[in-house]
Design goal:
Largest sheet: 7 strands, mixed
Strand content: 35-45%
Distance between the termini: 14 Å
Strand order of the largest sheet: 3-2-4-1-6-8-9
Number of strands: 14
Order of helices and strands: EHEEEEEEEHEEEEEEH
Helix content: 10-25%
Radius of gyration: 15 Å
Shape: globular
Number of helices: 3
């Protein structure tokens, strides 16, 4: 089972909805928040994803795990991560970046508009946006994903889509 942890403000549901909409129909998903558990099932498909939405955690000791740091994090991050967890974070998220710089974790995908971001966009017009992976990333399966550009047709804000595509890259088989 693959775990995706959405860490940050519980009121911010934008990334939650986009993530579920983009994975629903391709994976068996269980979504868990403090007061909610919902399952989205695909017949004849065995790959399972558990999406956990939380604003506080102390320890993560889990394999096949992706943490997405939401842009709104109310408290300081006091988290111990014990395995090779994959992290997706907006490079302008000061609290998360400060935590990650101290933690020295390896598997981090930053997204944004900086030249140093792992995942960014290279161009857009009214109909098409081009997403760019600027460095190698290791998928959960161990497969190395080489830098690439991908044009997509979507009217959603590109910065809302970048973490979703970060997850898609990490789920690559």
């Amino acid at each position: 089972m693959i775990k995706i942890i959405l860490f940050g403000d519980l009121e911010d549901k934008k990334i939650t909805k986009l993530l579920i909409n983009n994975l629903e129909g391709k994976y068996n998903i269980t979504y868990q928040a403090p007061k909610t558990i919902i399952s989205y099932t695909v017949k004849n498909f065995s790959q399972e994803i558990l999406i956990i939405e939380t604003d506080s955690l102390e320890i993560i000791d889990s394999f096949n795990t992706i943490i997405i740091f939401k842009n709104n994090i109310k408290n300081n991050i006091n988290l111990k991560i014990k395995n090779d967890v994959n992290i997706i974070v907006f490079s302008q998220n000061i609290k998360a970046i400060k935590f990650l710089n101290k933690s020295r974790l390896k598997n981090i995908i930053t997204f944004g508009y900086k030249l140093t971001d792992s995942l960014t966009f290279s161009s857009s017009d009214s109909e098409t946006k081009t997403i760019c992976l600027q460095r190698q990333v290791k998928a959960l399966t161990g497969k190395i994903i080489e830098p690439f550009e991908l044009s997509i047709k979507n009217k959603i804000n590109i910065f809302d889509l970048l973490p979703i595509y970060g997850v898609k890259i990490l789920l690559e088989r």
